[in-house]
Amino acid sequence: MKKILILFFAFIFIFCFKKNLFKGMENPEDIFKKSLELYEKKKYKNAIEGFKKIIYYNEVLDFTDDAQFYLAMCYYKIKDYEQSFMEFKFLSDHFPNSEYKEESEFMMIKIDFLNLPREELDQEKTYEVIKNSKNFLQKYPESNFKNEVEEIIKKCREKIAKKIFGTMELYLKMGKVNSAKIYFNILEKEYPDLKIYERAKKIIENKK
Among 170, 135, 133, 176, which Cα is nearest to 155's? Predict the structure, then answer.
């Protein structure tokens, strides 16, 4: 019973503390600064409350897009990727001149990449990430995120190639060599630069 009471009062204390974080703050600039402090202290869930106050303020401020960006980053940090993606997209769509637009579009690609299906599943989303990544590089050829985007493209290509390789192996196990060669030809045409192609080549050559 004593332990239950301690937990109960601890919950009430935490609840009241969170509730009063921005109590008495009317100036949106003060709220933003407080939210940034919370963000830097990795108190992301608390920071979300403040950033939302800025975004839903009755007028657009000079730092509204800053609040929108950090709101998206808060959700990213707590691994709520779906909400984070939506917040980054909102910034990209509604603040076309924001200094955070490029990074927001990069983060959308990164989140999609993190949510890709396992290689044995359908890879339609992986192709989409590659397409979006290439579009990003065309749009921002000098981007600071160029290397990271290129790495995402590389990993996506490897994922797709593994899927194709797996299908090739499956047909070989079933004794359908001609069908397996169809998938090998795809590897040869689209992914000759990857190590898995060399592996597939040796397997196919041994079947001749």
Answer: 133
| Domain annotation covers residue 156 | no
DSSP string, 152-201: HHHHHHHHHHHHHHHHHHHHHHTT-HHHHHHHHHHHHHH-TTSHHHHHHH
| Whole-number Å distance between alpha carbons of 192 and 36 | 48
Q: What is the H or E stretch that residue 51 is in?
A: helix 44-55
The per-residue pLDDT for range 64-109, each reduced to its tens digit, is 999 999 999 999 999 999 999 999 999 999 999 999 999 999 999 9
As for how many domains the chain has, the answer is 1
Interatomic CA distance for residues 108 and 39, integer angstroms: 20
In a domain, 7, yes or no: no
Contacts of 155 (CB under 8 A, 6+ apart): 113
Q: Give me the count of residues in the chain.
A: 208
